[in-house]
Amino acid sequence: MPEVAARSHVELIDRMIAQAVDRSGLGFSQLDAVAATAGPGLIGGVMVGLTAAKAIAIAHGLPLIPVNHLEGHALSARMTESADFPYLLLLISGGHTQLLAVKGVGSYRRLGTTIDDAAGEAFDKSAKLLGLGQPGGPAIEAAARSGRADRYAFPEPLSRREGCDFSLSGLKTAVRLAAESLPTPTQRDIADLAASFQAALIRHLVARTVRAMELEEESFAPPRRLVVAGGVAANAALRGALKAAAEARGWLVLVPPAKYCTDNGAMIAWAGAERAAAKLVPPIDEALAFAPRARWPLAEPIAGKAFGGGRKGPKA
Ligand code: KG4
Ligand code: ZN
Q1: In the chain, which ranges are continuous DSSP H helix?
Q2: What does the alpha-carbon distance between residue 70 and residue 123 come to, in Å, rounded to a whole number?
Q3: Distance, CA 284 to ligand 1 centroid (Å)?
Q4: Which value, in Å, is the radius of gyration of the alpha carbons in the chain?
Q5: 224 and 288: one domain?
Q6: How far apart are CA 162 and CA 122, in angstroms?
Q7: Span from the CA of 290 to the centroid of ligand 2 (angstroms)
């Protein structure tokens, strides 16, 4: 509910910033710069956050760094792992499912994206169908632990399509049809459906990531690194499957701890610090004039037939 979300941001942001400053043991005078998410996302919340950051920057005479939310995810692994550039990035969240080549701060090349639902969206919608709670990712992961993943053989999306694009909406439909074929689904049925769905989704994400590793082998010198980020990267079964597939090809797999995979403020501060270190801080009048963006792609798709362009909506 965008209206409610925006209102909550207004009501909570002052208290939240005061608490964060208090807990850090630092004062505003000790800060080097202020970083804030400037998009993409629900515009009301982004406006509130960016406006608060602008106010702090003006009041304390600090530089302001508008950050792309996706860049926060893209660089999040570098907070805790030795994720040196360049690396291949699988970014999987509630709104995005993308494969990117990350060459450095601000240097991203998109190899593939979803042509319909995002991975987190597929988890959330399937959980809803199965009467499980929200957010759907952790709910499905928990239900799947006691289920049989081989009970339903859900089809693999785009298996004959070239490139690294994803398609996840068919899987949700397959779950719905399977659930509807049962007169009254039992706990066991739900667990089996959750396990079969999760396994099919993991197979698809792994297959497309392996395709990207094969296509990009030459652009990365060893040690080749795969970084996984975004809320869905919190999924332990997926982390395990990606690790096994990548390591079999001699790639290192780096995933931040779950609390830095799902949305968090630390990764935005980190992206700001990385931008500051790379001397990518805009002049203050430019930063203050920066308007919040509902849509803000991190990278344009690369040209060429091998990779689909994906759709042009917010998920792109
Ligand atoms: O990155 P994030 O916190 O927010 C966005 O920027 O979208 O991602 C949220 C998504 C939700 O769809 C949620 O269901 C999913 O991440 N998620 C998971 C798990 N934890 C969160 N999906 C699968 N398994 C999980 N353990
Ligand atoms: Zn996110």
Answers
A1: 2-24, 43-60, 69-75, 119-129, 136-144, 169-180, 187-216, 236-248, 258-261, 265-277, 284-288
A2: 19
A3: 34
A4: 20
A5: no
A6: 22
A7: 21
Cα-to-centroid distance, 314 and ligand 2 (Å)? 13
CATH of the domain at 26: 3.30.420.40
Assign 309 a pLDDT band (cuts: 50, 70, 90).
very low
- With a 6 A CB cut-off, is 314 part of the ligand 1 pocket? no
Short-list 78, 71, 83, 79, CA closest to 36: 71
What pLDDT score was predicted for residue 162? 85
pLDDT reported for residue 283: 97
What is the Cα–Cα distance from 292 to 96, expressed in whole angstroms? 19
Q: Are residues 49 and 90 in the same domain?
A: no
- In this structure, are residues 44 and 36 in contact, taking their beta carbons and an 8 Å threshold? no
Ligand 1 nearest atom to the CA of residue 261, by list position: 1
124 lines ligand 1 (CB under 6 A): yes
Residue-level pLDDT at 168: 95
pLDDT in tens, 232-255: 999 999 999 999 999 999 999 999
**Which ligand 1 atom sits nearest the alpha carbon of residue 264?**
3
pLDDT at position 308 over 80:
no
